[in-house]
DNA sequence: TGAATTATCGTGTACGTACACGGAAATAAT
DNA sequence: ATTATTTCCGTGTACGTACACGATAATTCA
């Protein structure tokens, strides 16, 4: 490629560099460097002089040169659950992290992985200790176990290590940023879809499955949002709540049976595929089923038409952007938005394919 | 920040640079540079030797250093419509471009703007000529006027200037990439929402407003998708199509009147706010209204509950990522996906705020 | 065989910044 | 006033690459 250079000559937008301000301030670049990095060893007077010149020339450091010259190789770590055949949800965030890692490798950034068992607080604690002894420059974590996570981030605070939450967040933490979703409002959205679909006929059932673990917070908020919507819009509707512990999941026959009622819709705050499997088995596929997350199981039933809507919280993007936030903060000193609620994407059979294709192929630089 | 360097010593992942392979191949870095850039002036033998070493060491150029050393300042241009108070749609792409421009300024990339009148093919032609005489290194364009755009990109092909389409694309063009949406499938999605909402009661009206201009392609595809869905799923439903030329828009009283029918839903393939205004005026707010795009007018009626669903094609992101594609291609020589269909986002009153906040604050590096 | 070409290659400088080192100036201690 | 400190500041090298220039070796021509 031969670039047109004529214009650049005209274009006086050549950014002023550390060298130029050194000249204007009549000092050496070393001195300028010292004030830029607050290394001290500079008299008040020359400091002011340089600061003035930087102000006038509107100096902004060249990050490309900075990265090249810097010997610092920022090391990030992530502290998230590992996925299992039974619960594949956490595969997506992992993919997002790996993708981000590849993209920022050119900048000398590396990522280490600390994966814990999402059902065992002890596992989290142990891995958290490992993270600390690894002494990273930034941490991405899913603070699933509030108490243990709270203790952990306090230590990070003391060490002045920035950290970013994904999936959920802790109150009163000094996290650099958070990427997640508004579960309450997602419940409201589900309710709206449900209302449109059911038109006040029959009973609507809210099902919480196996939420004794990490997902309980999301499930509760979703349920609350769902209820709130109907309370405000269709107070007379018949809402039932069904809590199914994970031990009873296999008892398929009585999974969603409410005597003397005609069920028109089911809202699964998690694990919709289990409900779908049940409905499919019973041949009850006229019931509207709304669930969460684009797991493979769910996708299968969405394609079959058993699940009607899935609300996606973009776990891949959450993690990806979490890593990027740390990267931008550490390498480019960029300011980072503290709260980043992912949009509540609604997936149906019709837009599923476009959605999947798109999600899997995004690159790093859409912010 | 003080980075932990212990690990880096252990970590032997230090990337091999041009210097190192020069040493291994027993040549100078200048020679290595010549084979990397195919500048010739290298004998077959040493060329092979260097290539072998690059292969063994798995050499990958350091793009950060490359950008710094290169004198090339890629200049991109965009060729899109300007927005007007009457049609604000194209404001969003412009914002996306500006945002991208800021983010890649550090890499020496600049963007020039060529905005044409979306209703006048002549305007496009003129601006296209201006683009050519500006001799850019990459072009982002909305090929609204197929014929003129087709002529234009042929010239770009001859000049070997890469170009990216947004919004719509031309068949048989050698575009680097395309960012847009699948209008047909978006129509299907709208139909599904409509079906859920109306449950086969009443008549459903498809309204095309003022689509004699650039939007005609999208509108047709949307309509086709909408019809196809109902044809496949609910053949018996009563569908009406209403084409309203933009001159008649002001005749508000008879905007959507179909004698002897009970309208339960309206699908506006464009300018939903006009329909919404009419319905609002007539007090017919029980009719389900589905439209496109998060323009301010539409948002107002979405908040009021007149419009029930808006399908968003993410125009800001389209443009943003279009610029980024050019950037990555030109500066980083990255491979670019040719087709990028944006997900069909469904916006309701419930997720509107989250959505707006998110869209306006994304940064560059989510891919 | 010697000079004139040409093909092939190495060297030097630059990009904008980081940072170690050492030197000079200013101050303090003797 | 001389030495010892401290404060302040400039120089040099490096990061990995691009590219102009010049040098050497190989080839051709006379």
Give a written overview of the molecule:
Two copies of one chain form a homodimer. The first copy, chain A, is of the alpha/beta class and 367 residues long. Chain A folds into three domains: 15-61, Orthogonal Bundle (434 Repressor (Amino-terminal Domain)); 75-180 and 315-342, Rossmann fold; 183-312, 3-Layer(aba) Sandwich (Rossmann fold). The first copy, chain A, is built from 14 helices and twelve strands. In chain A, the strands form two sheets. In chain A, strands 2-1-3-4-5-11 form a six-stranded parallel sheet, with helices on both faces. The longest helix of chain A is centred in the middle third of the chain and has 18 residues, at 216-233. Chain A starts with 5 loop residues before the first helix and ends in a 6-residue tail after the last helix. Chains A and B meet through helix 5, helix 9, helix 13 and helix 14 of A and helix 5, helix 9, helix 13 and helix 14 of B.
């Amino acid at each position: 490629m031969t670039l047109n250079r004529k214009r650049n000559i005209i274009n006086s937008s050549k950014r002023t560099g550390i060298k130029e301000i050194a000249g204007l301030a009549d000092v050496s670049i070393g001195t300028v460097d010292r004030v830029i990095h607050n290394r001290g060893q500079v008299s008040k007077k020359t400091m002011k002089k340089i600061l003035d010149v930087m102000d006038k020339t509107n100096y902004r450091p060249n990050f490309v040169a900075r990265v090249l010259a810097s010997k610092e190789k920022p090391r990030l770590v992530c502290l998230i659950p590992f996925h299992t055949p039974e619960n594949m949800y956490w595969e997506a965030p992992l993919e997002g992290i790996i993708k981000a890692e590849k993209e920022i490798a050119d900048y000398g950034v590396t990522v280490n992985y600390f994966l814990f068992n999402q059902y065992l607080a002890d596992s989290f604690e142990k891995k958290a200790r490992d993270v600390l002894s690894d002494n990273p420059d930034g941490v991405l974590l899913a603070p699933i176990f509030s108490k243990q996570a709270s203790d952990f981030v306090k230590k990070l605070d003391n060490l002045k290590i920035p950290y970013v939450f994904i999936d959920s967040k802790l109150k009163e933490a000094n996290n650099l940023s958070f990427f997640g979703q508004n579960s309450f409002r997602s419940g409201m959205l589900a309710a709206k879809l449900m209302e449109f679909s059911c038109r006040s006929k029959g009973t609507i059932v809210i099902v919480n499955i196996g939420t004794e673990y990490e997902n309980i917070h999301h499930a509760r908020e979703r349920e609350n949002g769902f209820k709130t919507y109907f309370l405000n819009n269709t107070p007379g509707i018949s809402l039932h709540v069904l809590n199914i512990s994970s031990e009873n999941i296999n008892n398929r026959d009585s999974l969603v049976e409410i005597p003397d009622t005609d069920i028109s819709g089911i809202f699964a705050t998690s694990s919709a595929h289990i409900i779908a499997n049940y409905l499919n088995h019973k041949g009850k596929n006229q019931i509207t089923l709304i669930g969460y997350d684009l797991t493979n199981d769910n996708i299968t039933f969405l394609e079959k038409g058993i699940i009607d809507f899935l609300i996606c919280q973009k776990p891949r993007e959450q993690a990806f952007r979490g890593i990027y936030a740390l990267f931008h903060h550490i390498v480019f000193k960029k300011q980072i938005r503290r709260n980043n609620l992912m949009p509540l994407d609604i997936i149906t059979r019709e837009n599923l394919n476009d959605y999947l294709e798109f999600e899997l192929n995004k690159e790093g630089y859409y912010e």
